[in-house]
């Protein structure tokens, strides 16, 4: 008897037949699993026994999908760094090997997203479409795979671009006391990459959630989040997450670099990273050294920052520029962690609390700041004016300290001090207002030519703003040559100075004509 049309009998028959065939074809296989047990749980770490085959840096899994990294591999037990909330973990809980090292999701799908070092979204926008996964710990590119740093990375900050230039592929340390504008300087640099075809990665380590939210809101408001990835380990997260965060962020950045893109990564800040690593090391009973930091504290930062480079054309020509941030205590740049980072990086930008309190923003101390690479990558037009400018500013700072004692000054010294004060006034800049290359060169050239010297000091800021607006009047062919990094020719210099002279004339006091005898 055939089934009535529209019944489910034929469908069910086919389904049961397929299930029977699959059951008959299934051959059970034995899969070995290495399982251990938790012996002790402490702040951010766990001691585990019963995993004889586990390797260093291997991921292990605890109940509730909690992951950890095998960090101390001893004969009797292993010390595991926990990567998440461990409040429900107890001695006796089962631990299983995963057979892989920690990796992170990478790809274009991360652009515009806020994630944790495990690749989990924190912005409530759903799952991330990752192209692949990369280990968080990767060897730095070989020396023969690297190319010289020759292309500038414009920060949009006059004091930095002119006097402490940064190149693409450089590692430039930003250091200073608390609340001196370190993060602001780094975020302004990210804002200035809009339209520059530079991917940015902002790595927040141990920051307050409110501070990270403010940074993300600023990036979104300025339309810069679309080319930025934000990797976050908050201050109340497990110390293990703070430790792996910069490595995970660097792997995300390296994915774009290996595709031939230019990438900027900001580590905010490595002071918290060093403290998290010290905490974990002491809990794991590793021998303490200077300031209780473990002996390999230099190594963990050097292997991180060594991954920032400019790749050769054969490797795609991409670059990874690193801006690590370090917090100093009481202006002590000779402390352990600051000196480590100063020796690892290619220069530093020092932010002085004294300048900050005086309202000189950004509070860059030119005398203590240096770029060991950027001069080679700086645009030729900057080099034509920046050398004399830095010398004049350094002379001014030396002489100003003597002038405070009421010393009688000769006319030459007074002119140097007056010129230096105008340089300092012109290098001031408001937050989140990066300055274009053309405007910067116009201001710097006018400064070097002494066009600001007749302007009263209280009007210099207003005059500088008017000059920046007037930069749009510079002939198109001249501005094209400046932005194309060509050398500053004498006709171009004259054309710029003519515009600058007209723009500054209203701010210069009128010279009274001498009466006839």
Task: Give your account of this protein's structure.
The chain is built from 16 helices and 16 strands. The protein has an 8-stranded mixed beta sheet with strand order 8-12-11-13-14-10-15-16, with helices on both faces. A 6-stranded antiparallel β-barrel has the order 1-2-5-4-3-6. Strand 4 and strand 5 form a beta hairpin. The longest helix has 24 residues. The relative contact order is 0.10. The C terminus is likely disordered.
Q: What order do the helices and strands come in, and which of them pair?
A:
Blueprint: H1 9-25, E1 35-42, E2 45-49, E3 58-62, E4 66-73, E5 78-82, E6 94-101, E7 103-106, E8 114-115, E9 132-135, H2 158-163, E10 173-176, H3 182-191, E11 198-207, H4 209-221, E12 228-234, H5 239-257, E13 262-268, H6 270-283, H7 297-305, E14 319-327, H8 336-344, E15 347-351, H9 353-357, E16 370-371, H10 374-377, H11 380-403, H12 411-427, H13 437-448, H14 460-470, H15 476-483, H16 490-504
Parallel strand pairs: 8-12, 10-14, 10-15, 11-12, 11-13, 13-14
Antiparallel strand pairs: 1-2, 1-6, 2-5, 3-4, 3-6, 4-5, 7-9, 15-16
Annotation keywords:
single chain, 517 residues, alpha/beta, eight-stranded mixed sheet, 37% helix, elongated
Helical fraction equals 25-40%
Q: In percent, how much strand structure appears in the residues? A: 15-25%
How would you sum up the global shape?
elongated
What is the straight-line distance between the termini?
135 Å
Structural class: alpha/beta
Oligomer: single chain
Q: Give the tally of β-strands.
A: 16
Question: Low-confidence parts, pLDDT < 50 over ≥5 residues?
Answer: 512-517
- Cα Rg: 29 Å
Number of helices: 16
In the sheet with the most strands, the strands line up as 8-12-11-13-14-10-15-16
The biggest beta sheet, please? 8 strands, mixed
